[in-house]
Amino acid sequence: MSEVRGNEHAEPLQEVLSRWGTDAREGLSSTEVKRRAEIYGGNVLERPPEPGLLRRFMAQFSDFLVIILILAALVSGLLGETLDAAVISIIVLLNAVIGLIQEGKAEQALKSLEKLSAPNARVLRHGVPAVIPASEVVPGDIILLEAGDRIPADVRLIETHTFRCDESALTGESVPVDKDASVVLPVEADLAERRNMAYAGTVVTQGRARGVVVATGMRTEVGKIAGALKSVVREKTPLQKSLTTLGKVLGIIVLAISFGIFVLGIARGERPLDMFLVAVSLAVAAIPEGLPAVVTVVLAIGIKKMAAQNAIVKKLPAVETLGSTTVICSDKTGTITQNEMTVVAAYAGGKFFYKENIPEEILGRFQAEGFAEPDPFPGSLPLTVPGVTFGTGEMGSSADPPVPAIPSRAEQDLSFTLFGAALASDAVILDSGTQVSGNSVNATPNNGYHNRSKDTIHKDIIGDPTEVALVAAALEAGFNKSKLEKRFPRVGEIPFDSVRKRMTTVHSLPGGRHLILVKGAPEMVLASCLYNHETFQAFNRANLIMAEHGLRVIAVAYRILGALPDRISEDLETDLVPTGLLGMIDPPRPGVAEAVARCKEAGIMPIMITGDNPVTALAIARMVGIAGQNDRCMSGQELASIDTEALASKVKEIRVYGRVSPDHKVKIVDAFKIRGEVVAMTGDGVNDAPALKRADIGVSMGITGTDVAKEAADMVLADDNFATIVTAVAEGRTIYSNIAKFVVYLLSCNMGEIVAVTGSMLMRLPLILQPVQILWLNLVTDGFPALALGFEPGEPDAMKRPPRPPSEPLLTGRRWSTILIQAFLIGAATVGVFLHGMRAGSDGDYSRTLAFVTLGFAELLRAFTARSETKSVFSTGLFRNTFMNAGVLISFALILLVVEVPVLSAVFSTVNLSARDWGVAFLYGLIPATGNEIAKFIRRRRETIS
């Protein structure tokens, strides 16, 4: 182990490994990792220091109106009104404390979300691949890289396979750079020329590689320039921006009203200081300057709740968009289905083979199509590879296998099909000594797709789920991939990608010959094969039968060459011999059919987009309810043949897209957007990033998703489940609805205070409320009850309503009418009880106390009716929201204290009230709540009639 040098590109590989004290095949031990973490620290870039507690606290006093209020307290103190000055100061401090606490909660929630969406890395620990947080990578770690990964540290490459990196973020090079682990470069080589290195922050665009970490954190190349990097700026959501604008507009209006009240009071002979304090207090209470901040709290806490349900929302604006989603475009594999592939059928040698868990209708279909009677999969199979003699146990079995005839172009052999499928895969058997028995091996994803056999739980296979199923099927037939690879070492490969839809591997044979193995989509592989018309028709019919019944079909072919060309290219994928077809099934996830039905009920159109065969895709779509019997599937070829405008005219009638490339996803999104739809699009690969960015909601897979896809997405599914998307949409609707309830409630209460004060002044009544009383009510109602509305449980019919139009403002005409009507009723109830107190012949303090308590009751009772915009307060469960119950009780207690506690009543200019007085205030306070319930009842009746 050594210090970071930065010249590893100029050193022989063995020297680098030796200096870092690591083994290229084993990696580091847990003890060594811990020791190095203590020496080098975490693999993170230093962030700019965050403002301290004192600075954040002082920022609470930067608002213009709060500054005016502080000046008013100072003026009051200088004029000898020490009590008023003290009370105003205390209330201002309490407001600042509450604001600081709310900001702290929002920051903590957002930080926890950042941790949830942090990137991972694959490393070797004790010789076993492990997925760890990228922040835990240490120098000397052996790291595994593949297409789509964002490289977490500076790496000296050990081996590369068609490996390319996008280094534009670091070097400005716009074209991906080819990497070669075998070269040793001059010390003076520029960063962009170091082909044997991969650097932190860059992206793997093709191939795979293995390397040793030589620098982490601030010691990486990107860390060296970290001082020039800007800290992340969290963008405001459209809702926050609109509320900020609303606050400014209302602020101007309220300031004008407050000034008018001040002038009116002076004209009536009131003390200028009293009227100044009333005007300022009313402005502070009425202007919703804290709305954007409180909305941030509600959004952040709501997002944290969504994260607990496996939907990690990375960007606050996404929550607003979720509620407007009209189309969900979802991948099939692993999202709609379980990603637990099992080989259940095969076609080889002109014959059909099956396993016990195959859908029964396929067997009858094969016989109806004229194929020979299907046979069960054999327990073990013999194998001959031209020019190769096997020794005892070389294929994984305990004895020499029987030697059948060499597979010919006329007799495609099941054993050779399984052999070829296993070797042309990257899946790895971790424990090559364990045997698998039985006919049921499922690929269950678990931190790198660990596959645990139902019959032998000690067996682990890691890799892509499809390849895991292929390797497991071969193992059942007696072909252990780990042992076969020692006899047939891989000397070259052409990786799978979503355009070619196939993978090719090259293996050494005795006598200088080479075995070319190709596996992939049948239409792509078979198109490169040589065979007669009859064989071609038989393969196509077998493929169609399996695909029509929901099986994913993989074709396997081979070719034997002498010397290899200088460059491994797609020219090797010609003149192939087809060996057979393997059919596997990936059953739908539990709950997906219900989620699809829920989507449709909510006015959301679910769409399936997959790289699978269109017929296979349509079969699965019908199983979960996305497609009906009369719906059709559009293929990638069809998509490529029409323009976006033409697709837009058809897109509403198409529910399934098969054999789709990432570029096609962008076209589908654009077609829906032309029609004004709000689109959620899922993706997991590097090439999916453009579609994820183009969609209104980009959704990346948390398990199978690449780092690039996760970064481009607005939301990450921790469980890769379609049902989670629907849950997130429902939660997004609830959050948005709660924000609307909160804003309507707060504005109606604030405007109610304006109506009460302005109305009393116009009626030439005495001062209806003292400044400290206004401020206290503002503190009480803006706090607990209003925030509790943000925690209101979702309404049962939230997913039975159509999506909200994205252009619809938060404050619709209906909501503005609610605000104005409630403000009038709150003001009228307050003025009415004030007149009641005056008729009793008591002094002004008694009437003001009644008005103060009534206004408090009106706003607290109004909170209960604000919990639903349509339903009765009794049908929603009067005490269902425990936060609301607690908030109202605390607020009522605070009102009770300033009335009944002698010390506080003197401060707030209140008098003790009798039980009858409290009853009168409660009844007047019920008027706004009752009015709101009547309005909702009338609205429900109208909707029922219409």
From TrEMBL:
<dbReference type="InterPro" id="IPR018303">
    <property type="entry name" value="ATPase_P-typ_P_site"/>
</dbReference>
<keyword id="KW-0479">Metal-binding</keyword>
<dbReference type="Pfam" id="PF00122">
    <property type="entry name" value="E1-E2_ATPase"/>
</dbReference>
<feature type="transmembrane region" description="Helical">
    <location>
        <begin position="249"/>
        <end position="269"/>
    </location>
</feature>
<dbReference type="GO" id="GO:0140352">
    <property type="term" value="P:export from cell"/>
</dbReference>
<keyword id="KW-0406">Ion transport</keyword>
<comment type="similarity">
    <text>Belongs to the cation transport ATPase (P-type) (TC 3.A.3) family. Type IIA subfamily.</text>
</comment>
<keyword id="KW-0109">Calcium transport</keyword>
<dbReference type="Pfam" id="PF00689">
    <property type="entry name" value="Cation_ATPase_C"/>
</dbReference>
<dbReference type="GO" id="GO:0016887">
    <property type="term" value="F:ATP hydrolysis activity"/>
</dbReference>
<dbReference type="GO" id="GO:0005886">
    <property type="term" value="C:plasma membrane"/>
</dbReference>
<feature type="transmembrane region" description="Helical">
    <location>
        <begin position="85"/>
        <end position="101"/>
    </location>
</feature>
<feature type="transmembrane region" description="Helical">
    <location>
        <begin position="57"/>
        <end position="79"/>
    </location>
</feature>
<keyword id="KW-1133">Transmembrane helix</keyword>
<dbReference type="InterPro" id="IPR023214">
    <property type="entry name" value="HAD_sf"/>
</dbReference>
<keyword id="KW-0106">Calcium</keyword>
<dbReference type="InterPro" id="IPR001757">
    <property type="entry name" value="P_typ_ATPase"/>
</dbReference>
<keyword id="KW-1278">Translocase</keyword>
<feature type="transmembrane region" description="Helical">
    <location>
        <begin position="742"/>
        <end position="762"/>
    </location>
</feature>
<keyword id="KW-0460">Magnesium</keyword>
<dbReference type="InterPro" id="IPR004014">
    <property type="entry name" value="ATPase_P-typ_cation-transptr_N"/>
</dbReference>
<feature type="transmembrane region" description="Helical">
    <location>
        <begin position="886"/>
        <end position="908"/>
    </location>
</feature>
<keyword id="KW-1003">Cell membrane</keyword>
<dbReference type="Pfam" id="PF00690">
    <property type="entry name" value="Cation_ATPase_N"/>
</dbReference>
<protein>
    <recommendedName>
        <fullName>P-type Ca(2+) transporter</fullName>
        <ecNumber>7.2.2.10</ecNumber>
    </recommendedName>
</protein>
<keyword id="KW-0813">Transport</keyword>
<dbReference type="InterPro" id="IPR044492">
    <property type="entry name" value="P_typ_ATPase_HD_dom"/>
</dbReference>
<keyword id="KW-0547">Nucleotide-binding</keyword>
<keyword id="KW-0067">ATP-binding</keyword>
<dbReference type="InterPro" id="IPR059000">
    <property type="entry name" value="ATPase_P-type_domA"/>
</dbReference>
<feature type="transmembrane region" description="Helical">
    <location>
        <begin position="920"/>
        <end position="938"/>
    </location>
</feature>
<dbReference type="InterPro" id="IPR008250">
    <property type="entry name" value="ATPase_P-typ_transduc_dom_A_sf"/>
</dbReference>
<feature type="transmembrane region" description="Helical">
    <location>
        <begin position="815"/>
        <end position="834"/>
    </location>
</feature>
<dbReference type="GO" id="GO:0005388">
    <property type="term" value="F:P-type calcium transporter activity"/>
</dbReference>
<dbReference type="Pfam" id="PF13246">
    <property type="entry name" value="Cation_ATPase"/>
</dbReference>
<feature type="domain" description="Cation-transporting P-type ATPase N-terminal">
    <location>
        <begin position="7"/>
        <end position="81"/>
    </location>
</feature>
<keyword id="KW-0812">Transmembrane</keyword>
<dbReference type="Pfam" id="PF08282">
    <property type="entry name" value="Hydrolase_3"/>
</dbReference>
<dbReference type="InterPro" id="IPR006068">
    <property type="entry name" value="ATPase_P-typ_cation-transptr_C"/>
</dbReference>
<dbReference type="GO" id="GO:0005524">
    <property type="term" value="F:ATP binding"/>
</dbReference>
<dbReference type="InterPro" id="IPR036412">
    <property type="entry name" value="HAD-like_sf"/>
</dbReference>
<keyword id="KW-0472">Membrane</keyword>
